Amino acid sequence: MNFFEEISHRDRVFEFLAPAASPVDVRHGPILYLEDVSVSFDGFKAINNLNLTIDDGELRCIIGPNGAGKTTMMDIITGKTRPDTGSVWFGSRHNLLTMNEPDIATLGIGRKFQKPTVFEALTVFENLELAMATDKRVLPTLTARLTGEHRDRIEEVLNLIGLAQLHHREAGILSHGQKQWLEIGMLLMQKPRLLLVDEPVAGMTEQEMERTAELLTNLAGEQSVVVVEHDMGFVRSIAKKVTVLHQGSVLAEGTMDQVSNDPKVIEVYLGEGA
Amino acid sequence: MVSSNLNTSKPWLLRPFNERSTQLFLGILFGALALVTILHLAFPEGHALHVSAYTVTLLGKYLCYALLAVAVDLVWGFLGILSLGHGAFFALGGYAMGMYLMRQIGDRGVYGDPVLPDFMVFLNWQELPWFWHGFDMAWFAFIMVLLAPGLLALIFGFLAFRSRVTGVYLSIITQALTFALMLAFFRNEMGFGGNNGLTDFKDILGFDLRSDATRLGLFIATGIALAIGYVVCRGIVLSKLGRVSVACRDAEARTRFIGYRVERVQLFVFVVSAMLAGVAGALYVPQVGIINPSEFSPLFSIEVVVWVALGGRATLYGAVIGALLVNYAKTVFTGIMPDAWLFALGGLFVLVTVLLPKGIAGLLQRRKAPEDSAQAAGQEVTA
């Protein structure tokens, strides 16, 4: 009787009834929440009881030596790899472990891979146009028209990534750094809530790094940004909060100064170098 | 103001008309149609400027090949699917038309059976197989011209693209597809005239197929079909779907990652292309007067790819140029020295691949390039 009364309350929406496309619930603060996540490949523990919380609008840097599990962690968040144990939540409503890759992407998690892949035969403008969050089924795509609103959005992103001058050039002619920015721009066109960025400054010149730092700092606030990076100088220039991964779990967390003075971290990094 | 180079606020099928190259293509095509018509009608036979009915039909045949080449270029040039089996869709369209033409013969066949085509009487069949019903009606047959190749492409494409078969493997499967169909259609039991195929047609829509006027009409109809096919393909290419196709061609995984269902894009474009190939086959059959399983031969499908490569991939008009030039050369060569034709074709292919990797269209573009960039610059200022 009580149960019947409870589920017949029409003013209450039950979590398990809410459609997966419903907005991300960040009322409790965190946008991403990993708890006790473990995964092993052939006995090797790539992720070992990892706990990580990313707040809404935060810019977080994740560092760690090779094999610390950074890429595997990204794979788990985007649905590419399923953990053996643990739970992963996006906001407090969406259990990412029950969703597949395209659904997670649609929900608002964008991922930038290490190696930039843009559509080289298309112009910068067209690259952004294709990435735009619209109806992506075949027939709507065939009949799609570019509205003023779309144009404004593309222009906005073009300015943000600093490629407005090059909008009509083929993406194939861009420099490595420009391709990275274009790819970040393509992610932004999808209006993600959370951006996962994998080694954005690898192979960049000093100037390009500065531009990238500026770009990522600007993005934080509206989006939450998680940056995985090797380059300590770069991390120092953008990070408010740094998480150090080691052997699949969190070794230290805090500001860059706190972290770099942490004896455990020094040991891991110096141990690596020695 | 940021602008993309085309007016993308128009409906997709109207966009090609804003484009210089399409305007030029349609102008030349319709000009040529008009010229041939005038030369054929206005000058008496024997006059130096007279175009004979034989030539008109030959040109009509070339235009069918051109439409087939456009269909192949759509999937190969823009979607990156190298189909070595488009001859199958061409032949299926041809067979659908052939079945209609067979039923039109009525009791004028050698055996004089009012319903059964000659080859069925010859095989001692008592009644029409179920799949021959309806082909006495033109509208039904014309729908089947689109439906038969379209359905085959849908089923084949669904299975292939869903399993993410691409590249060389897909090409090989398309070869196998057309080869299997050829073997099947060779069998008398299939009910499509076996080895001899369908022939001895009398008339189409009530017009005598042997009359010069009908031949001219078919030639013009083929020209119009080519124009429509070209505009449809161009419309797709200029649409957002066209850009998604290019994206699938160049970076399939990335396209999937930004949210497009790559296999559905491939399926859609593949089916459209197969239907166009079917139309080309349907217009081909009444002009050459026969359809037999040799149209399914894998060699023919490969030849089509050679036309497109010669003309230049991913331009559509290049495919038309390639189809016309190679087939004209074929007619000339096989007339002068039949044995040398394959060597000539092979030589031509090697020459173009080495010297003109972008085909003849690439040569045209290179010549036009300075003019185009000036135009683009002008556009930007005004935009």
TrEMBL record, chain A:
<dbReference type="InterPro" id="IPR017781">
    <property type="entry name" value="ABC_transptr_urea_ATP-bd_UrtD"/>
</dbReference>
<keyword id="KW-0067">ATP-binding</keyword>
<dbReference type="GO" id="GO:0016887">
    <property type="term" value="F:ATP hydrolysis activity"/>
</dbReference>
<keyword id="KW-0813">Transport</keyword>
<dbReference type="InterPro" id="IPR027417">
    <property type="entry name" value="P-loop_NTPase"/>
</dbReference>
<feature type="domain" description="ABC transporter">
    <location>
        <begin position="32"/>
        <end position="272"/>
    </location>
</feature>
<protein>
    <submittedName>
        <fullName>Urea transport system ATP-binding protein</fullName>
    </submittedName>
</protein>
<dbReference type="Pfam" id="PF00005">
    <property type="entry name" value="ABC_tran"/>
</dbReference>
<dbReference type="InterPro" id="IPR051120">
    <property type="entry name" value="ABC_AA/LPS_Transport"/>
</dbReference>
<dbReference type="GO" id="GO:0005886">
    <property type="term" value="C:plasma membrane"/>
</dbReference>
<dbReference type="InterPro" id="IPR032823">
    <property type="entry name" value="BCA_ABC_TP_C"/>
</dbReference>
<dbReference type="Pfam" id="PF12399">
    <property type="entry name" value="BCA_ABC_TP_C"/>
</dbReference>
<keyword id="KW-0547">Nucleotide-binding</keyword>
<dbReference type="InterPro" id="IPR003439">
    <property type="entry name" value="ABC_transporter-like_ATP-bd"/>
</dbReference>
<dbReference type="GO" id="GO:0005524">
    <property type="term" value="F:ATP binding"/>
</dbReference>
TrEMBL record, chain B:
<dbReference type="GO" id="GO:0005886">
    <property type="term" value="C:plasma membrane"/>
</dbReference>
<keyword id="KW-1133">Transmembrane helix</keyword>
<feature type="transmembrane region" description="Helical">
    <location>
        <begin position="216"/>
        <end position="233"/>
    </location>
</feature>
<feature type="transmembrane region" description="Helical">
    <location>
        <begin position="168"/>
        <end position="186"/>
    </location>
</feature>
<feature type="transmembrane region" description="Helical">
    <location>
        <begin position="137"/>
        <end position="161"/>
    </location>
</feature>
<keyword id="KW-0812">Transmembrane</keyword>
<feature type="transmembrane region" description="Helical">
    <location>
        <begin position="265"/>
        <end position="285"/>
    </location>
</feature>
<keyword id="KW-0472">Membrane</keyword>
<dbReference type="GO" id="GO:0015658">
    <property type="term" value="F:branched-chain amino acid transmembrane transporter activity"/>
</dbReference>
<feature type="transmembrane region" description="Helical">
    <location>
        <begin position="340"/>
        <end position="360"/>
    </location>
</feature>
<feature type="transmembrane region" description="Helical">
    <location>
        <begin position="49"/>
        <end position="68"/>
    </location>
</feature>
<dbReference type="InterPro" id="IPR001851">
    <property type="entry name" value="ABC_transp_permease"/>
</dbReference>
<dbReference type="InterPro" id="IPR043428">
    <property type="entry name" value="LivM-like"/>
</dbReference>
<keyword id="KW-1003">Cell membrane</keyword>
<feature type="transmembrane region" description="Helical">
    <location>
        <begin position="75"/>
        <end position="97"/>
    </location>
</feature>
<dbReference type="Pfam" id="PF02653">
    <property type="entry name" value="BPD_transp_2"/>
</dbReference>
<feature type="transmembrane region" description="Helical">
    <location>
        <begin position="24"/>
        <end position="43"/>
    </location>
</feature>
<feature type="transmembrane region" description="Helical">
    <location>
        <begin position="305"/>
        <end position="328"/>
    </location>
</feature>
<dbReference type="InterPro" id="IPR017778">
    <property type="entry name" value="ABC_transptr_urea_perm_UrtC"/>
</dbReference>
<protein>
    <submittedName>
        <fullName>Amino acid/amide ABC transporter membrane protein 2, HAAT family</fullName>
    </submittedName>
</protein>
